[in-house]
Each structure stands twice: as structure tokens, then as C-alpha cells.
Amino acid sequence: MSNTEVLSLFPETAASLGGRLSIGGVAASELAATYGTPLLVYDEATIRSSARAYRAAAPNVHIHFGSKAFPNVEVLRILREEGIGADVASLGELAFAQRAGYTGAEIVVHGNNKSDAELAAAAAVGALVAIDSLEELDRAKAAGIERGILRITPGIDADTHEAIRTAHHGSKFGVPPEVALDAIRHAPWLEGLHTHIGSQLFDAGAALMTADWIAAFAARARTETGWTPKTIDIGGGLGVATAPEDPRPSIHDFAGQVAAELERAWAEHGLPPVAVMMEPGRSLVGRAGVTLYSVGTVKQAADGTTYVAVDGGMSDNPRRALYQARYTAVLADRVDDETVGRFTVAGKHCESGDVLIDRVELPEPHRGDVLAVPATGAYTLSMASNYNALLRPAAVLVADGHARLIRRRETLDDLFALES
């Protein structure tokens, strides 16, 4: 595994300068010394580049950031500056979007079990709401929702981990086609349709199938109910390489192909013009993020495995435990050194499943080294916990040789703030 292969997983500005990892013009080890570890480092240039890639690939498509990937006010502000809307799925995510300056039509509200309070909040800001069930239709109307799209389940199995497939038969999200037709008859005020097939997709195959399917369904709905959608939300799901062996999907290719296929299928069915939306999350911020850890104990187990223990683990990145996600790493101040063997990177939590990386080639690791894990910008800190009463990490944004704190590290006082 070459340095070039590994560094290609890091943010666009990452480089080895004299063997020291630099991100956004700042040495990773200096960031660790200043802000402590674990630390999530976001590269502003990579976030902006990803946003611009979507807009260039699909200029006529409204792009909304799946904020569940990393709800953070400053990151949302950057994306809003780049013309990206916000996709939210809770009162909390809606509050983040509003704090970042989003209003009205810039926001899409999702969720398979929206509370009355969430519907009321969506109505208050004039957001577009993805209706997830027949039961929700009447509650949404009663709450004052004026713009709604119906989430539909096409029965397409995305090639991804089963836990992050969302459009298969039996999914908890959306409604089946026959129920969708009943919903349209019951609520002709609906302005469109939504579907999302899953997350961490490495090719456009299933998404292209979905574009064809939803166009065919829209044509069927027109025939059987006289209703035609004005808006189509085709979802998101593009993956990010987190290990050298992963494919490297292109934002430009994925978004461009899906937008073109939907346009082609729409025309084939003779449907009237429609506004199109996409909801990428991981692919906007995943590569932009790097997690820095401090190495602690290094020891060999009876089976010959050499463990490198770090000061975080499944509390700041549960993806390996939940989805068997693969990662790699470098020693931040010895990027160019020869590797001496394969090591297993373990967290400090009280269970054997707390392993971040099964095998990674490294120079000889020592206590106090800074370990940098790339492609951790999505679904890590947003899914973090206080397991073992560990404190959630800080996050910094780097650009042009400067770093600034965008989320402070938790303190012990934060842990006790909710105790009675």
C-alpha cells in the first residue's frame, strides 16, 4: 500500500510535508497538540469542492445536504454559501439548519415517525415535508403543512449494507406503490414524490433503476388518478472510499448520470416538466473529515495480533461496529517511514468489538504518536455516544493554513448537566 494510495483517501489539501501530514496547510500533529485528541478535522476546501462538483454535474437539480451525516452550524453555513439546501429529520437537525441561516424552501423535512411538534415546526418555517405514511398525511395537513412530497418504496435492493438499505420491500421508510396511489387520491395537494434507496453506494446502478422506476410510477399515477408530480426527490446515497481497496466513485459521474436518466425516463413517458432534487450527505463531507487519535498501549496478543490502542473508539466512530466499515490510517509525523508490519487499531471501550481497523500497515507505533484516520467526516461524530462516559471529541475546520474550533470538546460538567 503506497503513500499515494493512502493519501488519496484524505482531504484534497492533504499532503506529506517532510513526512508530516498536513491538512489545509496545518500539520496534523500540531492540531492534536493544540486541541487535544480524539479530534475531528474538517477541510473547508474539500467540502466546497464536493458541493461544486454536485452543482456542476447536475446544474438543474436542487441539491440538499443530508445533515444527519454531520449536523454542524459552520459546515451548514459553508454549504449554504455554495448553494446547497438542508435535509433534516428531527427538531434538532431543523434547529441546526435554522441557526445556519436556512429558511423555507431551502429545507426538506424527513422522518418515518414525525411528531406533531416536528410537523408544526416544519409548517412554521415553510419547509417542504416528505410524507412517510397515510397516517401522517392528515396530521401534516392539520399542522399547516402546505408543501408535501410522498415517500414511496420501490422495492429496489441497493448494493450496500442491509442496515442502510432504505427502499427494499419491507422497508420502514415510505409506502408501497399501491398505498401511494391511495394517498394521492386522498391528498391531491401533494406536490411530488420522494424515494431514497440507501447509503454508501459505490456505483449508480441502483440509482439509475430508481430513476426509471419513479418515472414509470408517475406515469401510472397520471393514468389512474389524473395527478402528476411537480417535484421529484431522487434521494442521495453516493459512497465515499474509506479504505484503499474501496472503489472511488465520482460525484460528477454519479449525479450527472442519475439526473440525465431521470430526464430521459421522464421524457419517454411524456410527463410534464418537473423540479428535481437530490440529497447527498456522506459524499459532501465524508472525505473532508479526518480523525486524529493519540496512541496509547501497544501490545501483542496470544494469537500474534499486535494491538495499537487509541484514546477513542466506537464512541466517536461506531461505523465499524455497526456496518463493518473498513478504514486505514497513518502516523501523522511519520507518513513516509517504512512500514514494519500489520497492526490492529483498537479503541479503549470495554468490549472486544471496539476495533476501528482490523489490519493496517504502519511504521513501529509508540505511545504518544498521533494516528490519523481518513474519510471519517460523515456518520461518526453525528453518531457519537458517551459510552464508558467518554467525552465527545472536538471538531476543527482548517483552511489556508489556519484552524478554528467549530465544536468544542465535551467536559465532565457536560456529562453531569443532565443528572438530577
Automatic annotation (TrEMBL):
| Gene Ontology MF terms | diaminopimelate decarboxylase activity
An individual GO BP term: lysine biosynthetic process via diaminopimelate
Residues in Orn/DAP/Arg decarboxylase 2 N-terminal domain copies: 45-285
User: What SUPFAM superfamilies would the database entry show?
Assistant: Alanine racemase C-terminal domain-like (SSF50621), PLP-binding barrel (SSF51419)
Keywords linked to the UniProt accession: Decarboxylase, Lyase, Pyridoxal phosphate
Task: Please name the PROSITE patterns in this protein's record.
Answer: ODR_DC_2_2 (PS00879)
Name the cofactor(s): pyridoxal 5'-phosphate
HAMAP family tied to this protein? LysA
Q: What is this protein called?
A: Unannotated protein
